[in-house]
């Protein structure tokens, strides 16, 4: 069989075919940039024409008319912000190196090495079933809005701070989003690694790293996130603080066209070694159990939903659960009617009680 030398690595015809497939995939994912920004963390952020972003490769969105702004005022401003000056917010690292011009959206560039380390090109950017959870769950039927001030969040249409070396190639904490319409069976992906999410804002790049980081017994940094359904279009908007990122079109989903049936906040550990022996050593949150509380455990506060009354409120019913309590756990701290409840979660993974 013929062979050749490429990038200092000896490859055969099959390998050349694989590289060709990878380059085709990269061309499909990475759209032409109006401007590119090199971040100090190694990422490249491409400022892509808003009308040429990956979302419109999705068959159901071929004739989609982009909604540039929500048709309503997202009610995050109604939250109690009296102590907001004492709550430093984590920002994305690439923002230190530049900004995207109006009419473009910031998209983290996928590299060849990202695809080379993927299990397969078809599975790149997708989630598998090997997951362990610790969550705070509400059955708030008809809720159309979720607002959080948190270090880590997790929703069914997932928005989170994540460390995912297989996807991002490093262990930096990153702000990511994930969507699926069939419980991860055949649809959905992280960030913009597949089509679906329509980005409209210039400030936040899905999948980009965030800084500074919270530390045990040190400063705590927050990620204020809201997700809300547009009553006129049925699109689900995602915001980071005051920055509107974009939306999932209502046409993507069957069961979210009118409302959300339930909402979850919490954490996940993604590994082939959960729920088996030996258990993964991958930590959730800070790596401390929920009982460690402030200064050690990861937590979420200012949890809110909005129902058909259009009033922000704490969910009427909230329950906590963890599917591997000896490895990761969850605790909702309620100190009285005048104190904001705080949800703690996390754990070290493998330990003497979790083998």
TrEMBL record:
Designated name of the protein: Neprosin PEP catalytic domain-containing protein
Pfam family, one: Neprosin
InterPro entries recorded: Glutamic_endopeptidase, Neprosin, Neprosin_propep
PANTHER family cross-referenced by the UniProt entry: ASLB (DUF239)-RELATED, PROTEIN, PUTATIVE (DUF239)-RELATED-RELATED
UniProt domain Neprosin PEP catalytic: residue ranges: 95-355
Gene3D superfamilies named in the record: Outer-capsid protein sigma 3, large lobe
